[in-house]
Amino acid sequence: MYLEKINGPEDLKKLKISDLKIVANETREALINKISNVGGHNGPNLGMVEITVALHYVFNSPVDKIVFDVSHQSYPHKILTGRKEAFTNQEHFKDVTGYTNPKESKHDLFTIGHTSTSISLALGLAEGRDLNNKKENVIAIIGDGSLSGGEALEALDYAGEYKNNLIIIVNDNDQSIAENHGGMYKNLKELRETNGESKNNLFKSFGLDYKYLDDGHNIEKLVDLFESVKNIDHPIVLHIHTIKGKGLKYAEENREAWHAGGPFNVEDGSPKYPASNEDTTVFDSLKNLLDTNKRAIVLNAGTPMGLGFVQGVRDEYVKRGQFVDVGIAEENMVAMSSGIAKNGGTAVFGTFAPFLQRTYDQISHDLCLNDSPATMLVLKPGVYGMNSNTHIALCDIQMFVHIPNLIYLAPTSKEEYNQMFKFATTQKEHPVGIRVPAKFIETGVEDTTDYSIYNKNKVEQKGEKVAIFAVGQLITMAKEVAKKIKEEEGLDITVINPRFLSGLDEQLLDSLKENHKLIITIEDGELMGGYGQNIASYYGEDNIMVKNYGISKAFHTDFDADELLAKNGMSVDNLYNEIIKLVM
Predict the structure, then answer these.
(1) Is residue 32 over pLDDT 90?
(2) What is d(CA 337, CA 351) in angstroms, rounded to the nearest whole number?
(3) In what order do the strands lie in the sheet with 346-352?
């Protein structure tokens, strides 16, 4: 066993090159041990084992600086930099995150979980090195479709005129999360097929030096390649062909499904804890739209499974020209949607809420300023969505509701979502965003609301003294509070489902002044600048108490949603006690 003696790159360097293959095998075994038990990013990490072993054998981290794009392929790096116990010992599985994290190790420079950033970050490190007259190597690793992101292309463009040491490793496994999309990937294919000799070379067109290695799992060749560029005095791209999912046959054969996932049985890849049937509400709405409206199209940016268009399902719609995956390029997705809507098509675009941060300007300028009636599906926002500080979406309300022309809707149930989607995809007045919850409540009661009457809230329960405005999924909590108040105090309070977050129901707000003393707002996103504070501002000069609840301003991570809500005052018992203290 070599791995048990490796507590950092300095131990790895003591070995012979011939021993590194054994280290790689042991590293892959440790990696599989963890991901098979707790899940994680499978394919990206399995494909990076040999590159990582060779990197740490040749270079001198953390003096030489390594930046992983997305960093969802950094598990082997963690194993070799003093964190192997988090992969070999079940008691320590939770000791490390799924992404690079400077709080864990001096070998991690940034907390990174979004795509297309590594070359820009590395350029910044290189410029900082130059300013301090230092000589270390700066290495950016990018792959899994990240090259199609705008920031990566901007960085390549600048790197073409940069003059000093910068090593860009393109981990080319011919795969994003789903298949790659975009003309550049045709060029990567051409380069693979010509062993890097094609005169049509994307990287050289940027003015960059270039080397190609076809077998990215041959450690001896990797070590030779890295030794050949160590301390280089100009930028160079090392284009390395690897196999996503390397070491697990089923992961190599079904790369999309094995990008990431939960615990599995190593023998055959079957899930250890089979998931219950996934909600298909979003996919069903999109499928019905495409099947009944030949001028409709769905656009996505590298995450088609989020909309239900998994491999095999989306093929027919791609052939029809009704489903487009632009690759990891949300800005392009939004601007294209605006153009489609402007030219008579029915455009729906959607992805996970944290990734829409990348395209704020296009939503504001290209879509909303031009009032193009496209539909935006914001998947898994708020505390019930993703819970990593790299994949957090607690500010979607703040990001969208103040943009003129955009109607931002928050359904509380499957029935409301379906009616909102029907409204959004048939109206031709404005862009409409729908805040799609992680899980749908199903009431069994059809929603017949006319959403073309803007900013009308729904009074779920009419009462007096106290009114609770509950955004989206929190309507259940508000109703439970109302029930407890009724049972314990004999008082009927008012419960309101705002539905429209981008405007206020001023008529309703004025009517509440007549017989209400306290207005409570609860939302599963950040409190500062959120929906509730707009209501508080409206009541500024009135003799009525307003109490806003939302999530504190922080990069919360690895949290339990209900616990985080409770920590911020949003639990049935706390809200009940507040009402008793302030009103009863």
Answers:
(1) yes
(2) 13
(3) 323-325, 296-300, 346-352, 375-379, 432-436, 407-409
